[in-house]
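Morning!

This is the sequence you dropped in the shared folder:
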Amino acid sequence: MENLDQIFNPESNSFWNLLLAAAVIGVSLFLARVVRRKLRAVFEANELEASASALVSRVAGWTTALLGVVLALSIMGVDMLPFVLIIVVIVVLLVLSGKSLVENWAAGLLLQARGPYGPGDRVDTNGYSVFVQVTNLRTVVLRTGDGQIVHVPNVDVLTNPLVNRSGDGMRRSSLTLGVAYGSDLDAVQSQLVDVAASVDGVITESKPPTAWIDELGDTAVGIELQFWHMYADRRRVRSDVAEACLRALDESGVSLPFPTNEVVISGRLERVEKD
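The structure's back. Tokens below.
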């Protein structure tokens, strides 16, 4: 190592290397600050969780600053190979020891970036039919219909099928009604379609109601009626259609049989007298 007099001597190469190294560190610190701000702005624009965006922006800033320090030390003539190897070993150990944490963290970022759901949406995932609360660094926090809170790892939500049942778009509902054998099935199907189309909230233009024979049961012919409506009106419309169909079939004299069981007793019956 050269002595201090030579390092701070303006006429020596070490002096100019020192100035260049200091400039590199200054620029790297400035770039680190810019990177943090830019990443936070991008994450906020994509509505990512604040804690996740803060962590990513900080890691990116620290990495930029560290690269600047490494470059500055190289300019000063310091052998950086052992230092770089130590950093690589530390990073590898951290990744291997916290593999699940890293996977869930990365999956959480992807889920927030893709936006397959939003807070309050009702989704089906991993065997749960629940409402989304929030996505954090490790889990998706879900709430069941009876108020229970479920934490599902981000990577499980990302790698498994997810059905988002919320939104303001159209939804299809179906009802299966069993009519007696011997009924005019064509007339029944036509009547059910007309009744469903007359219910307020049922979409008739782009997706009109349909009906067809679904099954042949032991005591009845199952006719499935399908109709479309807006998601927000799903419960009211389904109830109104079911009520209207039952009333119309009853007024038309169409029988809606229910399963019956016949009990056959064979052999001799003996009377038991009580004392």
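Headline: The mean pLDDT is 79.

More detail when I'm at my desk.
O.
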